[in-house]
Amino acid sequence: MVNTTILIVDDDKYMLELLGAHIEGAGYDVLKAENGNVVLQLIEDANIKLDVIISDVDMPQLDGYGLCNELRRLDNFKETPFIFISAKTSLDEKLKGYDVGGDEYITKPFEGEEVVLKVRNIIDNRIKHLAMTQRVQDSHNAAMQAMSYTSNLGQVLQFMKATADVNEFNVLADKLFDVTSSFGLSAVIQFHSPNGIMNYKKHGNVTPLEANVIELARSKARIFDFQARSIFNYNNFSLLILNMPLGEEEKYGMLKDVLGNLCDTIESKVKLLLTNVVMQQKDEVISTVTQALEAIDQSYRDIQLANMSAIDDMIHHMEDAMFGFGLSDAQEDTVRGIVLYVKKKMSEISEDGSELYNEFEKIHDTLVHGLK
Fold first, then answer.
1. What is the pTM of this model?
2. Which residues of 252-272 are buried (b: 16+ CB within 10 A; e: fewer)?
């Protein structure tokens, strides 16, 4: 009953004082007014709070029915309990009270205890009604929040499907921004790969300061809030949300959960992309080494053939020339022996080169096996 205010309206001062005494005796605060017009003037104060209105029906200028009708047009008094008191007991009179929005009708003469009991019942029912209304509203809000959460999770599932065949970071970023935009959020994402850092933003370019802030914030918590922004830090990327509703606790909590699910999906996809990058780099190394060895092999074979051909040409020319030098048989044999010795040495050098090439091939095979 604390801070419970009852307004009594009656042009009969005796009845006004009598009712007031009974209501105050029951522990309620009481306001009094002589007629309906006085009430309308009284409620112009926007801060006035009335828990129950008790009004006589027959009053000059504005009677009880007219007062109730006027109050029901005002937002602050649409549901304020209204009790009529009247000596008129006919059905027509009570229907009038019902039609204008009355809640109770007490006939004169009455007992003070009767009025107090009906006031107490109306207040108790009002409290129960408000509690029930609040529970219904809370249930509605919870249902709407659940529906919104489910809808947002549906967006995450769609993202998973849309990125199944994505093989590039910029395409993955675009798919992400489609989801964040559907949540009404603006985002920046920063990927970390062996090839360096990649920054993407839906509209415009990522500023150097923006990129630097994200990079520095990676040492903070998994979710780092500052002003209206939140950064979600993962092993291979960081997601910056530029307009998180930090002042709306329920909405923020829901979005944080959904974005967490979204980031888990992104992390898995990024790992696959990074694996592909590493494999591509390995393939490039293997291809480069293989091409180099093939070039060495071809060059070696060309040099080997050229050397042997040169030696053979030299022997042929030497034999032709020796006929014109007038050399003795012993001298010709000596020169021919020198040339054959050189050819033998060149052959040995070629064999040494072949062994060296075999060692290169072993290195190539070891490298390829290690990178697979």
1. 0.45
2. eebbeebbebbbebbeebbee
